[in-house]
Specification:
Four Helix Bundle (Hemerythrin (Met), subunit A)
Length: 175
């Protein structure tokens, strides 16, 4: 799937979550901590990015090359579990399979062209998605709260309460 369709498809998945969710206290208790972990990973990663200026290799980028997507996976998995709907889990899984491999490949290709030497050295020691336990390579980037703001991670922070509130409210309103 073209990466330009990723955001509109994500909104569609959000609607599917709200429509099909039938959360329970247990599903929320299991899913919402995963959502929180995912957002913490995304904040950590966002604070290291200086898009197109410097290759981020510090913080979470020393553990895997795509920590924003790892964080997004935790958020989506947590929301799917919290929804207590097999259909939501399947929709979320289909979304990730459809978009994330190609998006990660496009991003890697761009970074390899933009930062050829640094990217090659980083790729040699840092895995693409499943994080390594210890940091690898040089850690040239440092966390900055200004990066979190500049990279607009605040939008995800603002949206997260909706992940918790809408499906649960829908359950009680039965709409």
């Amino acid at each position: 799937m073209p990466s330009r369709d990723r955001v509109p498809a994500g909104w569609l998945i959000g609607v599917i979550v709200v429509v099909l969710a039938r959360p329970t206290l247990l599903s929320m208790a299991i899913g919402l901590p995963l959502v929180a972990i995912g957002e913490m990973i995304r904040i950590w990663a966002s604070g290291h990015i200086e898009k197109t200026k410097v290759l981020a290799t510090g913080g979470p980028y020393a553990h895997c090359r795509h920590p924003l997507y790892v964080g997004s996976l935790f958020i989506a998995l947590g929301a799917a579990i919290a929804s207590a709907s097999v259909w939501v889990v399947l929709a979320v899984a289909a979304y990730f399979v459809a978009f994330f491999p190609s998006v990660m490949r496009e991003e890697s290709d761009f970074l390899a062209r933009k930062f050829p030497e640094e990217h090659a050295a980083w790729m040699a020691v840092v895995p693409p998605f499943i994080p390594r336990l210890t940091p690898g390579g040089s850690s040239s980037s440092r966390f900055q709260w200004s990066g979190v703001s500049r990279n607009r991670e605040w939008r995800t922070v603002v949206a997260l309460p909706l992940i918790a509130i809408l499906p649960y409210a829908r359950r009680w309103l039965d709409v």
